[in-house]
Amino acid sequence: MTAPALRVEGVSVGFGGVRVLEGVDLDVKPGEIRGLIGPNGAGKTTLLNVICGIHRPDAGRVLLDGVPITGKKPSSIAQLGLGRTFQTSQLFRGMTVLENLMAGLYRRTTTNVLAAGLNLRSHREEEERTEEAARKALEFVGMAQFADRPGTALSFGQQRVVEIARTLISEPRVVLLDEPAVGLSLNRLAEFDALLRRIRDEKGVALILIEHVIRLVMDVCDRVTVLSSGRRIAEGVPDEVRNDRQVIEAYLGKELRARHS
Ligand SMILES: Nc1ncnc2c1ncn2[C@@H]1O[C@H](COP(=O)(O)OP(=O)(O)OP(=O)(O)O)[C@@H](O)[C@H]1O
């Protein structure tokens, strides 16, 4: 059996006495697209924050490629092969798209500040390698023509794709995507769906996708995990989850009730 790229074991989190996650387990295989869905406040973002080291769980642990990462700093976890995008755009103002990507990789490069200051050859070579990796990542996501535009001048949907490209240049094993389809028009969704599949198939990266666009989740995910009130209530291939009574009640039921009220 393939070892999981990411394993979450019995993770519990409370904020001020309120339990937000309760004994959550999750195993994601290398090169799998996993959907993480559930009603508002179910604990999805909190779980991503535990995985990437922003929150420390009260109980449980997380392993990346078999290595325990709980308690490590987010930057160390990123270096071990975890990428992440957020619900809101995290592009730097005043930088072009290409510079934004290069900034993502500079954090991982090896030449020191002194070498940079003296403009040594090693630093220049590294800068060239970084630029090449950034251009390749932009090409991979189909946005090479935007390289020299200011990042924040792009549409919100395009900014999300640039952020995904930025995670890819560090060659992660697992990437967490928090509502990446927000701001994408319906006809862009099919392209986005194809991009996620290419990341899985060509790069072997495991993706964990929090998404309220259920159509995207059901189309693109290999498996789907459902959280409700901090607990995992269902897991399976999209069809199993779609037809699960508990899911219909806890997730779709709540949505429908909200819509009708
Ligand atoms: N830092 C925090 N301090 C206190 N409570 C928090 C904190 N972060 C999240 N919560 C609470 O934890 C619960 C779960 O929030 P979380 O954002 O993880 O849910 P979610 O499933 O991602 O929801 P949504 O789909 O609305 O983004 C919510 O009740 C939220 O108010």
What this model shows, in words?
It contains 10 helices and 10 strands. With 261 residues, it is α/β, with parallel strands linked by helices. It has one domain (6-259): P-loop containing nucleotide triphosphate hydrolases (Rossmann fold). The strands form 2 sheets. A 6-stranded mixed sheet has the order 6-7-8-3-9-10, with helices on both faces. A 4-stranded antiparallel sheet has the order 2-1-4-5, with helices on one face. It is globular. The termini are far apart. The site of adenosine-5'-triphosphate has 10 residues, from helix 1. InterPro entries: AAA+_ATPase, ABC_AA/LPS_Transport, ABC_transporter-like_ATP-bd, ABC_transporter-like_CS, BCA_ABC_TP_C, P-loop_NTPase.
Distance between the termini: 47 Å
Tell me the CATH superfamily: P-loop containing nucleotide triphosphate hydrolases
Alpha-beta classification: alpha/beta
Tell me the number of helical segments per DSSP (H or I, 4 or more residues long). Answer: 10
Fraction of residues in H or I helices: 40-55%
Element-level helix/strand string: EEEHEEHEHHHHEHEHEEHH
| CATH class wording | Alpha Beta
What CATH architecture would you give? Answer: 3-Layer(aba) Sandwich
Q: What portion of residues belong to β-strands?
A: 15-25%
Which ranges are low-confidence, i.e. pLDDT below 50, for 5 or more consecutive residues? none
Number of domains: 1
Mean pLDDT: 88
Strand order in the largest sheet: 6-7-8-3-9-10
Q: Could you give the count of β-strands? A: 10
Bound molecules: adenosine-5'-triphosphate
Please state the overall shape, judged from the principal axes of the Cα atoms.
globular
Gyration radius, rounded: 19 Å
Q: Mind describing the biggest β-sheet?
A: 6 strands, mixed
- At CATH level 3, the topology is Rossmann fold
Family: Belongs to the ABC transporter superfamily.
GO cellular component, one term: plasma membrane
InterPro entries: AAA+_ATPase, ABC_AA/LPS_Transport, ABC_transporter-like_ATP-bd, ABC_transporter-like_CS, BCA_ABC_TP_C, P-loop_NTPase
Pfam families: ABC_tran, BCA_ABC_TP_C
